[in-house]
Design goal:
- By secondary structure, the protein is α+β, with helices and mostly antiparallel strands.
- It has two domains: 100 residues; 78 residues, no CATH class.
- Helix content is 55%, strand content 14%.
- The chain contains four helices and five strands.
- The chain has a five-stranded antiparallel β-sheet with strand order 2-1-5-4-3, covered by helices on one side.
- A hairpin with a 4-residue loop joins strand 1 and strand 2.
- Keywords: Coiled coil.
């Protein structure tokens, strides 16, 4: 509903209506000021001046009340904007979490369930992808996955826990040429290993 409302073009007539209302209010204020000036010019007794002062006081009270009412309305609108902004942030955060979870689920399916990675020696030049599922005390626990589809690979020279996790997973096949980390994947990340 809000998206469709954002696409609606504001009609020019709105400005015409607001301008006419502002001109009408200005004319009314001008007429009132002229009437008060006429009363001041005619006033000759103290009682007439008191009536003029009371008129000014009543106008001031009315204007103060209107100002307080508009301030309260503005405060309510600001509170609503703050609440809507907080709701938006919450929804965006939850959306990011759901997307990350969906990406993780799509990318962490093992390629060959039931086959032991250590029993399948990699071929020279072969590239394999591994996803970190969780961390143990001294190493990361990794599973083999398909390619994540990103191209933001970063060299991983200090990835000690990932290296130890790969060593545990691959057994004696630890002679890889390069180990890179995906800079786009979340939730533990994806590792690209080239032999």
């Amino acid at each position: 509903m809000r998206a469709s409302a954002a696409g609606v073009v504001r009609p020019d007539e709105i400005d015409d209506i607001r301008g006419a209302a502002a001109r009408s209010d200005y004319r009314a204020l001008q007429a009132k000021a002229e009437a008060l000036e006429a009363l001041k010019a005619k006033a000759s007794s103290l009682e007439e001046f008191r009536d003029i002062a009371d008129s000014y006081a009543a106008d001031n009270d009315r204007l103060r009340h209107q100002l307080a009412s508009r301030d309260a309305e503005l405060d309510r609108a600001r509170a609503e904007v703050r609440q809507l902004t907080a709701d938006k942030r919450t929804l965006l955060f939850k959306l990011d979490q759901v997307r990350a979870l969906a990406d993780d689920r799509a990318g962490t399916e093992p390629l060959a369930p039931g086959r032991d990675e250590a029993d399948q020696p990699p071929l020279p030049g072969e590239i394999r992808y591994y996803k970190k599922t969780h961390a143990a005390a001294a190493h990361d626990v990794l599973v083999r996955i398909g390619a994540c589809g990103h191209n933001a690979w970063q060299n991983a020279t200090r990835a000690d826990k990932a290296r130890k996790g790969l060593a545990r997973l691959l057994g004696r096949h630890q002679n890889w040429k390069s180990l890179q980390h995906c800079g786009s994947c979340t939730g533990g990340g994806v590792w690209k290993v080239r032999w």
